[in-house]
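Hi everyone,

Forwarding the result from last night's run.
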Amino acid sequence: MAQKRTPRDSHRGSGPSQRQLRVGELIRRTLSEVLARGDIHDPDLSRMSITVAEVSTSPDLHVATAYVMPLGGAGQEEALAALRRNRHELRRLVASGLSLKFAPELRFTLDETFDRMDETRRLFARDDVRRDLESDEEDDRDDDRQD
């Protein structure tokens, strides 16, 4: 028998449920389509090309956080301001494309994935880190030879 999940379980590091992941992906696709078609009648928003990288939802699916980035990374604050200003209309348009009981509240934040990847690449390029990685690879090869 499956254990019943409580709201407190979501804070224990178990990760999002399959339903949260599915709903987040549906919202991401729908939001991307709405922004690409230019369904919002805001001149600031319609002149921007915005990428929706990911949407994460709260365990109760009442809040959806969209991680966005304007194309090329320029005008980030303007893009966030335009999205936040039009969040009610975006919520209505996203809800019409989904078959959920209610429309989740949309929140927008900048996607920092690319910045973190650049920082990771920079760290791996450092001499001391590269030296440590090479010594670990040599140790692994020695272990494989002994087996």
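The longest strand covers residues 50-57.

Cheers,
N.
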